[in-house]
Design a protein that fits this description.
InterPro entries: EF-hand-dom_pair, EF_Hand_1_Ca_BS, EF_hand_dom. The protein is mainly alpha-helical and 137 residues long. It is built from 7 helices and 2 strands, in the order βααααααβα. The chain has a two-stranded antiparallel sheet. The structure holds calcium ion (2 copies).
C-alpha cells in the first residue's frame, strides 16, 4: 500500500492510453482470477471491490461499518460489473465497467488532487505510475 496524490487528469490520461489500460486491466483480471477459468466469481471479485476505496467514500461507508451493509454494497457493485447477469464477470465486462467507474471517478475528482491509499497492484496505482513516468519523460 502507498499514499498517492491523483486527480481527474491522471485517470483520464490513463484511460486514453488504450494499450496501458488494456494491459493493466488484463493483468489485474488475471491476478483476481485465482482458479484461472477466465471468469471472476463473486469471491474472486471481492478483492477488487475492497480495493475500490472510493466507493466507501461514495456510499458514506467507512471501514468500521456493519459487515452486512458492506456485503450489500459489494453485491450491488458485483451486479454492476456483471452486465449479462450470469453470475460471473468476464474480461470484457470487467474492462467496460472499470473504464466507466474510472471515468465517473475522474469526473467526481475534477482537477482537485486528492490523496488516496492505493494497493500496489491496483489499477489506480498503475494510472499514477504511468502518469508520473510521462511527466518524467
Ligand atoms: Ca475464476
Ligand atoms: Ca457476466
Amino acid at each position: 500500500m502507498s499514499v498517492e496524490i491523483l486527480d481527474g487528469a491522471t485517470i483520464v490520461h490513463f484511460l486514453e492510453d488504450e494499450e496501458a489500460f488494456n494491459s493493466s486491466v488484463g493483468n489485474r483480471f488475471a491476478r483476481l482470477d485465482t482458479n484461472n477459468d477466465g471468469l471472476l466469481s463473486y469471491e474472486e471479485m471481492l478483492k477488487e471491490l475492497r480495493s475500490l476505496r472510493i466507493f466507501e467514500t461514495h456510499f458514506g461507508i467507512d471501514v468500521d461499518s456493519d459487515p452486512n451493509e458492506l456485503a450489500r454494497v459489494y453485491e450491488s457493485l458485483f451486479i454492476q460489473f456483471d452486465h449479462n447477469l450470469n453470475g460471473t464477470i468476464d474480461l470484457e465486462e470487467f474492462k467496460k465497467e472499470t473504464k466507466q467507474m474510472m471515468l465517473a471517478m475522474a469526473d467526481g475528482m475534477g482537477f482537485m488532487p486528492i490523496q488516496m491509499v492505493l494497493e500496489e497492484d491496483s489499477i489506480l496505482k498503475k494510472a499514477v505510475e504511468i502518469d508520473s513516468n510521462k511527466v518524467a519523460a
